[in-house]
Design goal:
The chain is an alpha/beta fold and 432 residues long. The chain has helices at residues 9-12, 32-39, 64-69, 82-85, 100-105, 136-142, 189-201, 214-220, 240-245, 270-276, 287-290, 293-296, 333-342, 397-406, 410-424, and strands at 21-24, 48-52, 70-74, 90-92, 113-118, 126-128, 145-150, 158-159, 162-164, 170-173, 207-210, 230-231, 235-236, 261-263, 265-266, 282-284, 302-306, 310-312, 317-318, 321-322, 325-326, 347-351, 363-364, 382-385, 388-391.
């Protein structure tokens, strides 16, 4: 095997030129040293468009030179770039996670450069994209130039994400710990109750999709008595690991990749990173496949668990913005909500606390002006708060409003009942 040649991060990012569109690998695989080195070139190059899905770690973007030289076009907004996206020096592109690879390959949104983080090459010369295959695999193969940070702490994962080192125009050896997020620490009494309610909807032999955050982790803590669960999800975190170890998640009854967890990326603590390292029971696959509705629906009893920022009383789900303020993104919510609804015995679920951290109701008469509708009221089924479970599928607007008021926080039900009367000219006292 030809031995790879490594260069410095400063030399590697010299490949990026003015007017380039640059993809940045995301989640736990965010190549922070290369990103930092690239931003250090602010003032030297200009009109560089950075494209990311969800990055983690500190990115020093808020300086005049960086804002003048770089523009962030985010396909999903994470906390570390939320200010940038909403600053006037960045923007958000609404797109289903499943369609991002096609965006890169179709000619609609071509990439000049892809900057990723990989494991060291194996004896055959293949690096692994590790914790995040998602759209990074497509980005590496479709960009004209590819740059890699080679990190010996990056897990070598099985599935689609293997790239021969010869594909990269520059390789930088940089050892670093992956960012860690412990969603279990973010649990509250409300999220625990929601987790219990959602677990009641899950049958034995179901296949689970788990969104990001404390609620999916809480759900997994309440399925200890379930049998033969499977996982087909765009991402997962630490909560899956003990269920595999205890034989609760077996993936035995899945139709797609039976016996294997199918995912596109992971984010959590070192525990989950160690779990996936060289683990043939976990298949990391391109997100255009993982999130394909036609693939998802083939798993019977597909349960999709996602969350929302707010829902109006007719069932419109806002999951990506607070009014016009871009908070996150569409991601894979609609991919899995629709896929689960078409699955035999499937259940699409939106689970959320009834109020925000400041006590503001998430169940509202109308969405905030400018709010984005991620899941339409035609796609919505189960809604879960700490006050109960309702199923809006097959219900008219009046029935939906009554059901949602019943699971709203008690402090806000009177105002919602007033809004009900103003809209429907009757009190919400009928039986659904």
């Amino acid at each position: 095997m030809i031995t790879p040649l490594y260069t410095t991060k400063e030399a590697a990012v010299q490949l990026v030129q003015s007017h380039h569109r640059v993809f940045i690998h995301g989640s736990a695989a965010t190549p922070l040293p290369l990103v930092d080195a690239l931003l250090q070139r602010a003032g030297e190059i200009s009109n560089v468009e950075l494209v990311s899905i969800s990055t983690y770690g500190h990115i020093d973007w808020n300086t005049p030179l960086v804002k003048e030289s770089f523009f962030l076009n985010s396909l999903f907004v994470s906390a570390n770039v939320r200010g940038w996206v909403n600053s006037g020096y960045g923007e958000y592109m609404p797109v289903f996670l499943s369609e991002i690879p096609r965006l890169f390959t179709s000619g609609e949104f071509p990439l000049d450069v892809a900057i990723v983080q990989v494991s060291p090459p194996d004896k055959h010369g293949y690096c692994s994209l590790g914790t995040s295959i998602d759209a990074a695999l497509c980005a590496v193969h479709s960009a004209r130039i590819a740059i890699a940070q080679v990190n010996p702490r990056m897990p070598r994962t099985h599935g689609d994400g293997h790239v021969h080192f010869s594909r990269f125009d520059a390789l930088v050896w940089e050892e670093m710990l992956l960012p860690e997020v412990n969603y279990g620490e973010k649990s509250t009494e409300a999220t625990s109750q929601i987790g219990q309610y959602v677990a009641e909807l899950i049958e034995d032999r179901s296949t689970l999709q788990l969104g990001i955050g404390a609620i999916p982790d809480a759900v997994l803590k309440h399925v200890a008595s379930h049998k033969d669960l499977g996982v087909h999800t765009e991402m997962f975190s630490d909560g899956v690991v003990p269920l595999v170890e205890r034989g609760i998640i077996t993936n035995a009854y899945k139709k797609i990749c039976p016996g294997k967890i199918v995912t596109s990326f992971i984010l959590g603590t070192r525990r989950v990173y160690d779990f996936v390292d060289d683990n043939p029971a976990v298949a990391f696959m391109d997100v255009s496949y993982v999130n394909d509705t036609a693939v998802i629906r083939k798993n019977p009893k597909m349960v999709a668990i996602n969350s929302a920022l707010e829902i109006d009383i007719t069932g419109q789900i806002c999951a990506d913005s607070i009014g016009t303020y871009q908070y996150s993104g569409i991601g894979g919510q609609m991919d899995f909500m629709r896929g689960a609804s078409l699955s035999e015995g499937g259940k699409p679920i939106i689970a959320m606390p009834s109020v925000t951290a400041k006590g503001v109701s998430r169940i509202v008469p109308q969405l905030k002006p400018g709010a984005g509708v991620v899941t339409t009221r035609g796609h919505v089924h189960y809604i879960v708060t700490e006050y109960g479970i309702v199923n809006l599928f097959g219900k008219n607007l009046e029935q939906r409003a009554k059901l949602l008021i019943d699971i709203a926080h008690p402090d806000h039900r009177e105002n919602l009942e007033k809004a009900f009367f103003e809209r429907f000219r009757k009190l919400p006292s009928f039986t659904v």
